[in-house]
Amino acid sequence: MPIKDLPPKARPREKLLARGPGALSDAELLALLLRTGIKVKGVLQMADELLYLKRNGGGENGFDGLADLLQATADDLKRVSGLGPAKRAELVVVLELARRAMAQQLKERTVFETPDAVKHYLPLHLAGKPHEVFSVLFLDVQNRLLAMEELFRSTLTQTSVYLREIVVRALRHQAAAVVLAHNHPSGSVQPSRADEALTQTLKAALALVDVRVLDHAIVGAGESLSMAERGFM
Q1: 32, CA 20 to 30 Å: which among 8, 140, 188, 221?
Q2: Where does the chain show beta strands of DSSP type E?
Q3: From the centroid of its chain, how far is CA 30?
Q4: pTM of the full predicted structure?
């Protein structure tokens, strides 16, 4: 249904001004950003399809909810029907601002002030990648983020993750602790035996230079797992 056909109180802009952004659904917020639809679909329908086309069986032309959309690139958005260059550019800017805001918050506060802080941050960078990526978050003595680096790609094993490189990077950042992170392109976040073995090997190697391994997070499709919370550390 076109927005102009909705009762005034049900229109996203009016609802936003009257009740605040928390009263709007993800699709309604996205519709406000898109502003207009196309001839064959209204802006609310376009926003809903953009968010949930994969879930509804639409193949590769959409995303699986807001978390998935936050990882979209300009090339990804080209595949979505009805998004012209101007709307794609606006979406890319908003998504990049969201990622930078999250990174800035992590740098300005203790990373483990809340247990889910890093788990919420990592999917923005690792979920949705077609290949396996191993990253390290380097932390200071107050567990604040110094840097996040993507160090290795492809199938990850103890032989493909170079222990010396991680130790060198930790010393270069003068890190007191690290959080290890990698993604599972399959979508499952359950740690494998190789993940557990790699974690213990890295803990032992980094302990030699007085750097603690606080956690190893695994990122899947729209979720992430903390190995420390699950007792795998």
Answers
A1: 221
A2: 133-139, 145-153, 177-183, 212-219, 224-226
A3: 18
A4: 0.62
